[in-house]
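Thread: Modeling a multi-component assembly for a lab meeting

Hi all, long-time lurker, first post. My supervisor asked me to bring a structural picture of a complex we are working on to next week's group meeting, and I have zero experience with this. I have the sequence lines for every component (226 residues in total). Could someone generate the structure of the whole assembly? Inputs are pasted exactly as I received them:
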Amino acid sequence: DTGVSQDPRHKITKRGQNVTFRCDPISEHNRLYWYRQTLGQGPEFLTYFQNEAQLEKSRLLSDRFSAERPKGSFSTLEIQRTEQGDSAMYLCASSSQGGSYEQYFGPGTRLTVT
Amino acid sequence: GQQLNQSPQSMFIQEGEDVSMNCTSSSIFNTWLWYKQDPGEGPVLLIALYKAGELTSNGRLTAQFGITRKDSFLNISASIPSDVGIYFCAGILSGSARQLTFGSGTQLTVLP
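Re: Modeling a multi-component assembly
Sure thing. I ran the full set together rather than chain by chain. Output:
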């Protein structure tokens, strides 16, 4: 399977704990995006990487959130001191270099904060 | 917050019927994408549109990029049970980089 993969698919954590999610983009794609989706809503943009550079961050990305893409391949999204409001589906997408704006999504990580 | 108004919110149709849904905005978009999402999964790209007035088909799906660049439409012809799911429009705002702004989705139910 050469699509976007995410790990884990599900995570249950207690409030105040830290969590980290991983995303592996389509192998030839140099752009990687993180989105958050709550129930009944469309995904909302969090941040965007081109290769290893983080080019854009949403105001939704509070200082408890940090994302990295150290070698321009996989990416991690860490949430520190989780809150119940962080419960959501975290989606990763990738797109190829050049003029294409088509973003291909992974299956997502469902986070539940208890 | 969301800048795209997607309608209808939900639809119940009979198998074999055609379906139309749309997204509108007060802002100008450079690109429109349509996705389908099944429960517990990520959105799957259906159609991409890049030019105002563009009409693009993908099998039974046809989408159009509105000439004002503020709206887009998706039509599904001869619906089948596997068309069930949530359909999202998404666009890239003029002047923004590459982040997608999503509509709130249209829940489609196909009755046998």
